[in-house]
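User: Structure please.
Assistant: Input sequence and predicted structure:
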Amino acid sequence: MSAALAPHLSALVQLRRDLHSHPELSYQEKRTASQVAAYLHALGLPVHQGLGTTGLVASIHGQGFSAAHPGPSVGLRADMDALPLAEATGLPYASRHPGKMHACGHDGHTAMLLGAAHLLSQQRNFAGTVHLIFQPAEEGGAGAKAMMEDGLFQRFACQAVFALHNWPDLPQGQMAVRVGPIMASTMRFEIRVRGKGGHAALPHTTRDPVPVACAIVTQLQTLVSRTLDPVDSAVLTIGKIEAGTVENIIPNEAVLYGTLRTLRDDTQATLVAGIERIAQHTAAAHECQALYIHKPGYPNTTNSAAEAALMAQVMAEVVGPENTHPNIAPAMTSEDFGFMLQQVPGAYGWIGNGKNGQRGTSLHHPGYDFNDDNIALGARFWDTLARRWLEQSSASA
């Protein structure tokens, strides 16, 4: 632990647990943003609130730099929102709001970045500016995109941007990153199968959309295995089916709801075309119609080479080479930080959240909790990463 942070660690843990007790969903993070702003103001930092509804940015300028002359600038991002999930941890600081829970550790991400604010603001012997980005609505609300559309990178120009997420698959004390895609893109879709309803006792007078919908689901399961190169990755899931009202009526329509996750844009395009083709042709074979409705989601989270290499270097410096995974396998979960990486070079990494050397409780699980041992570690990592990036930027200028 950094000696400069030690006197403040207890307060950071208390703040993290307070945020955990008061989770707020996407674009509702008013109390959270207020707590963050108060903490940053107490450090003497200027805070700009209201970006992307409830997002905020604090800028820390090195010696001789200012808002008018920021010099090289790097962004560090933490997300703040919770999930619509009932908590089952039994912790003394468990959620006080039924049906809402910090089940993804965004309370901890916020605390880590506030710890970094302490370290960076106390010792400003760096050449340039660090923008601390506290983002709303990562959980399906595309808060990163909302902040960007609100002028994030125009008002706070960054030549690189970084994010860190806790990762229960790794024990606490280990960290990971990779060059290229580390998280998948995600999109949602509907398939509306339209037939002709009627009495369940007279199926010959109908065009029953229910078995057609079932046939489409079955055929879609072959799309990944028989369309893609086996070394490519994709996940296609039908998670919801709606049809009918009562047992003895054949409905006019059946609706399928699904998601698609890929690591490459061309793979997504291939599979989207395949979903639509299979749906329409399967329906036509049964004298029904299928309407495909595309719902864009998050892009791939793709790390640029130089920034991922720097992140791996700093991880090795902070936790040791033996605890660093510089080429971790990607995950098929998604992350709206991918929007930021489409506009600014950067990298997204993982910090282990397990306990006692073991794997931790999964993200989005009602029994999940952030490991508070990561607050000091994450703060030290952010402090070191920002300084190393600014050193490299100044050396190459």
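The radius of gyration is 24 Å.
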